[in-house]
Design brief:
By secondary structure, the protein is an alpha/beta fold. 35% of the residues lie in helices and 22% in strands. The chain has a single domain, classed as Alpha/Beta hydrolase fold, catalytic domain (Rossmann fold, 3-Layer(aba) Sandwich). It is globular. The two termini are 20 Å apart. The model has no long low-confidence stretch (mean pLDDT 94).
């Protein structure tokens, strides 16, 4: 298995990223990170996917602010340190609109396909927290290049804003999966219903499930939100999606 840090040229700069290509190669998967950036947990997750025979790229979605510093996840328990961290990253998250993530995603896909051993054809994106939101935006904007997405504890998928992701689901031609966190302030039960209604009306092939007892961020074993049962369920559903769309 080839594992390395790489630099991905984009229209707006260079994104640092983690690349994992299994022996023998495989189809392309892009992992869209949560707000806390590239770190050992995401590398571990990428390697778990690659072990199933997929080539995985994990880009720093917030590269416009420069490479994110290595975060000691234990600092999140310290209110002052947590406030300083979010003070830096929230403006970067807010600036990552549909146009920006679409430009970036096209370059991420180009880069992944240019690697030895990566099969040609549309990719799958799996996204976490803000990564899940942006995965939905990308499959809507690039339906010919993204054949499926999985969004886990993605937030703000259906809002009252004119650019809400749920308003463009009619563009989707592939398959989508949503694993929602229970009691998630960023994606309430009412918002889930709005999203599902839009997907139904558009005739999208999808599954949308609520992970009872799992809070926002439940897949991330390096945070206090981690839920072991939820993580295991997430892997089962992600691997099932990857196999269905391989």
């Amino acid at each position: 298995m080839r594992k390395e840090m790489v630099n991905v040229p984009t229209e707006d700069g260079v994104a640092d990223a983690y690349l994992v290509v299994p022996d023998g190669g495989g189809p392309g998967v892009i992992l869209f990170m949560d707000a806390f950036g590239l770190r050992p947990r995401l590398e571990e997750m990428a390697e778990t996917i690659a072990a199933r025979g997929y080539a995985v790229l994990v880009p720093n979605l917030l590269y416009r602010g420069g490479p994110l510093p290595k975060i000691d996840m234990a600092d999140l328990a310290d209110a002052s340190k947590r406030e300083a961290l979010f003070g830096r990253i929230m403006p970067l998250i807010g600036a990552l609109d549909t146009a920006a993530i679409t430009r970036d995603a096209a370059k991420y896909i180009d880069f992944l396909h240019a690697q030895d051993g990566v099969e040609a054809g549309p990719v799958v994106i799996t996204g976490y927290c803000m990564g899940g939101t942006n995965a939905l935006r990308v499959i809507e904007a690039l339906p010919d290049r993204v054949k499926a997405i999985a969004s886990f504890h993605g937030g703000r998928l259906a809002t009252d804003q004119p650019d809400s992701p749920h308003l463009a689901v009619g563009n989707i031609t592939g398959e989508v999966y949503f694993g929602h966190a229970d009691n998630d302030h960023s994606m309430s039960v009412d918002q889930i219903k709005v999203l599902e209604a839009a997907l139904d009306e558009a005739g999208v092939t999808y599954r949308s499930e609520l992970y009872e007892g799992a809070t926002h961020g439940f897949t991330m074993s390096d945070t206090a939100a981690y839920n072991a049962a939820g993580e295991q369920r997430h892997w089962e559903n992600l691997f099932a999606l990857l196999e269905r769309t391989r």
